[in-house]
Amino acid sequence: MFPTRFVWGAATSAYQIEGAITADGRGRSIWDTFCSQDGRIVGGDTAETAIDHYNRYREDVKLMADLGLTAYRFSVSWPRIQPDGSGAYNAKGLDFYKRLVDELLSYGIDPWLTLYHWDLPQALEDAGGWPARDTSKRFADFAAAVHAELGDRVRNWSTVNEPWCSAFLGYASGEHAPGRREPAAALRAAHHLNLAHGLAVQAMRAQNADSQIGGCVNLYPVTPATGSEADQDAARRIDGLQNRFFLDALLKGSYPEDVLADLSHLSDMEFIQDGDLATIAAPLDMLLINYYSRFTVSGAPGGAASAAAAPTDSGSPWIGSEHVGFVNGGRPVTSMGWEIDDSGLQEMLRRIAEEYPRIPLYISENGAAYDDAIGEDGAVHDPDRVAYIDAHLRTCHTAIESGIPLQGYFAWSLMDNFEWAWGYGKRFGLVYVDYETQARTMKSSALWYADTIRHGGLLGRAQ
Ligand code: FCB
């Protein structure tokens, strides 16, 4: 059994579900541009319609209520609310999120709002994107505007979803929008995403002291393939860039010296200005952790295995450590090729609780893609997803029992959706979506999750 106040949630993001990319005055985002370019998205998929959540949000909130969710994590689309990323706000865009939030509240579902889940207004990319310092300031203004409008009915706020992805997939490997392959620019982007987080926290705090505000990072434990010095150095490097660069900045107000040294050939770091790190480390009410898998690495280049593999022609996101090889750790994988390792979640939670003590923790994303299909009985049977979530929830439970301040769990994702460069080929949902008809069908994992929530804990071990 989980604590009575444990938050049982599911998560989505605006770009992956909303569609309606030209409706009601929405501006253009970097992902619209990216999807229109050849070779960027598997199968040439776009998010023009996505799963039409913009028009179907009432039906979707009803699904959440049927599941018994106590919380729903979603993101707002910056170009829908502020089409050019600066200047005028679009009342119709804001109204959509007010309606969504009111609908959630009418069912007693707590809205958890993420301000940035990767859909930067194209106008800001044209002005330099995240490598430009000004984008951080634009984001703080946007955060303040959204918070001023929705702060009365949304209590839980997070700033930037997974800054690692925005910086290094967006500007180093080019797997994500805007598709640039510029390592030095990616480093600046990483710092400016952190700065954007800190400035937004300050701006929201100044408005309303009651809001619960967090940062959101994607963390991977990193294991060296062998005990060799080269493999251990590879693990230090990847852990540094993936985990410590963001955790230390947000929670300690410093960048790890070894990571800065690994990157010193790229920049003199002049873009890290006096006072930035104090801003970035503005006190937080919670840390949101997205957890999917573990990395096993070697000091010699190897096959780009598992979680490190990109679906399209891309460079390396591991700036300064491009030589590191990602090797198969020998665990079963999901249809993303990501190794399943709930012990990695345990390891991460313990580490955070020890190294960055006392901050309340939430698992803000966790889940798995499988090749789901509607069966002849009209149902979608996804026992592998049930087993995945069951195992990770058991780990969460063990963590809580051992005193780690973990307070909630959000499954990724509520519904199948547009999985970035992978397009619609990868299904992460608890709810199956027929992309032709937009019909929603609860998978067996959704029914299982609803039972779990109703019971307040795990029943028998999943098969
Ligand atoms: C995370 C993203 C989310 C989704 C999952 C599978 O990195 O935050 O949008 O793509 O991975």
Low-confidence stretches: none
For the record, give the distance between the C-alpha atoms at the N and C termini, rounded to a whole number: 19 Å
The biggest sheet amounts to:
8 strands, parallel, barrel
CATH superfamily: Glycosidases
Number of strands: 13
Question: What is the CATH fold-level name?
Answer: TIM Barrel
For the record, the CATH architecture stands as Alpha-Beta Barrel
What is the number of domains? 1
Walk across the major sheet and give the strand order.
1-2-3-4-5-7-10-11
What proportion strand? 5-15%
> Structural class of the secondary elements?
alpha/beta
Q: Quick one: CATH class?
A: Alpha Beta
Give the structure's gist in a few sentences.
40% of the residues lie in helices and 13% in strands.
What does this protein structure show overall?
- The protein has 463 residues and is α/β, with parallel strands linked by helices.
- The chain has one domain: Glycosidases (TIM Barrel, Alpha-Beta Barrel), CATH 3.20.20.80.
- It has helices spanning 14-17, 30-35, 53-67, 78-81, 91-106, 122-126, 134-150, 163-173, 183-207, 229-252, 257-262, 276-280, 342-355, 383-401, 444-455, and strands at residues 7-11, 71-75, 110-116, 156-161, 212-218, 222-224, 286-290, 295-298, 325-326, 361-365, 406-412, 431-433, 440-442.
- The strands form three sheets. An eight-stranded parallel β-barrel has the order 1-2-3-4-5-7-10-11, surrounded by five helices.
- Helix 3 runs parallel beside helix 5 (91-106) and helix 8 packs antiparallel against helix 9 (183-207).
- The model has no long low-confidence stretch (mean pLDDT 96).
- The structure holds beta-D-fucopyranose.
- Beta-D-fucopyranose is lined by residues 13, 16, 161-162, 165, 218, 290, 365, 412, 419-420, 428.
